[in-house]
Amino acid sequence: MSTFRARRAIPSVLNTPTAIRINESTNITNSDAERALTEFIDASDAIAAGLEQSSKNTGLSKNNDSSAVLSQLKRIQRNL
């Protein structure tokens, strides 16, 4: 007789918890959100391609599989 085991999801950037503490929030316009998102996506693409950009210090690292996250961010960018 076999026992049923629920499959455990492999930890990734999409399903692991992150702790964020918000001290203050302000509303921004869609153009400001798009600008910040564009800078982040461009920096992530440059990091993934191995290009050194000293002016860009944000972005997803190339050490993890961030293609799903990056494609979702690009979808959000297109909607803005």
Structural class: mainly alpha
Q: pLDDT average, as an integer? A: 80
Give start-end ranges of low-pLDDT stretches.
none
**Count of DSSP-assigned helices:** 2
Query: Largest sheet, if any?
Result: none
Shape: extended
- Helix percent band: 40-55%
Cα distance spanning the termini: 54 Å
What's the helix-strand series?
HH
Number of strands: 0
Portion of residues in beta strands equals under 5%
Radius of gyration: 17 Å
Question: What structural keywords apply?
Answer:
80 residues; mainly alpha; 41% helix; RNA_polI_Rpa14
Walk me through what this model shows.
The protein has helices at about 30-50, 65-80. It has about 80 residues and is mainly α. It has a domain at about 30-80. Helix 1 packs antiparallel against helix 2 (about 65-80). It is extended. It starts with about 30 loop residues before the first helix and ends with a helix. InterPro entries: RNA_polI_Rpa14. Pfam families: RNA_polI_A14.
Task: Give the secondary structure arrangement, pairings included.
Blueprint (H helix, E strand, L loop, with lengths): L29 H20 L17 H13 L1
Helix pairs in contact: 1-2
Could you give a quick summary of the protein structure above?
By secondary structure, the chain is an all-alpha fold. Helix content is 41%, strand content 0%.
